[in-house]
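Section 3.1: Structural characterization of target chains.
Under the original work plan, the team committed to producing a structural model for every single-chain target entering the pipeline before any wet-lab resources were allocated. The record below documents one such target. The sequence was received from the expression subgroup and is listed exactly as submitted; it comprises 153 residues.
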Amino acid sequence: MRTVTTDLGVAACLVEKDKILLVREGKGPQKGLWGLPKGSVDEGELPQLAVKRELIEECGIDVEILGLVGLRECLIKEIPAIFMAYLVHSKNSVIKIDNDEITDYGWFGVKDFQTLSWISEAMREIAEKAVTNYDGKMINYTEKRGRSYFLYL
């Protein structure tokens, strides 16, 4: 199989009581914009583990992965850019944001979405699906396969 350089990003959709956790970016080109807690996948890291790591780093939240909400693909400077958004469940309810990366956070219902300045329309659509229309699941075949192996339906 041929290897392709890819920009691989992840986001977390943490939904509680019909509201989703959103964060305001504190630096970079998306500074001041709202979106899902997100980050990049490191070499040798599964995307779902990257989501867990990013949530701990940015928000102090440990989560369990429930499934895949959505996937965005595009080309950025001729490099495939894949962005995977996971539905997660919090193992702890205390949020401690990293003020270097995130300046604010909040719990928002879909009716609140139009009042926010979003990172992208795609991220808004993913957040809306997570709150209103998620119907997927994750099957863990790791034990049967003897290696990390997950199926998202």
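The chain has three helices and nine strands.
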